[in-house]
Amino acid sequence: MASGTPAESIAASSSETGKTLNAVSRGLGPKETTVLQEPDGAILHTIAISRLCFKVGRITVPPAVVLALHGFCEPPAQGAPYSHENPPPSFIQAKKIRSKLHGGNPKHLKAFFKDSWRDVPSGQRWWEDALGGSVEERRKARLGAMEELRRGMEEGHA
Asked: pTM for this structure?
């Protein structure tokens, strides 16, 4: 049977939380802090890290293929922003695979995810263009910070 009062167990729990937060802070190390302010002046204090692995059964699908097929791409270099009337070139290709109106269907989409993307010659892989350029530059620039954050969070659990 546990001894002590409920207040003592809360204090112990708070102490453990403090230790965990200190470990996370040490893992992150001294860094210049970026404060993101919302348009209404609020400050957002949130951390979320996700590792994604796209699969069809046991087959891993490259993230660029999945994301580009769902419209994710770098912004236009110049001119009008992308819209329903002005879709990105990669989305036009994606519709040929997934949209019945453009000759695609769910079976084509599954086959493409499974292995058909490998049959596209390297110079014609439209998904690489969609996620290249500024998107790839931002991903690489932010990857180091995310790895440090992940490591700090994991060290906090140890």
From this structure: 0.60
